[in-house]
Backbone:
């Protein structure tokens, strides 16, 4: 299993970014995918989830209405569109999935929101 995130960067408050996570080594469409973040000096925080068939999504309350998770099962890729970014969204963003009790994580992509 390999998960590779991209798309992070430095953006001003109110700006937008789209994160991507390219997956390989498993049957992507069969797995729920998640975005999780870790702000500087803080613990891991779940951000969003999408089911394998895209039928179900869920969001951290503080990002609802600003972030949108989606996936392209033909491209084995999950996305996180982030609009209206705030300084408190600054974090290392990971995509993650789980197979039974075993979790898989990418290396993360840094999002920094600053004037």
Residues:
């Amino acid at each position: 299993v390999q998960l590779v995130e991209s798309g992070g960067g430095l953006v001003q408050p109110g700006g937008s970014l789209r994160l991507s996570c390219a997956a390989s080594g498993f049957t992507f469409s069969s797995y729920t995918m998640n975005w999780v973040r870790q702000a500087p000096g803080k613990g891991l925080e779940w951000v969003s989830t999408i089911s394998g068939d895209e039928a179900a999504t869920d969001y951290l309350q503080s990002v609802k209405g600003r972030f949108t998770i989606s996936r392209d099962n033909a491209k084995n890729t999950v996305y996180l569109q982030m609009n209206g970014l705030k300084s408190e969204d600054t974090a290392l963003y990971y995509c993650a999935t789980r197979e039974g009790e075993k979790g898989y994580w990418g290396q993360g992509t840094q999002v920094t929101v600053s004037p």
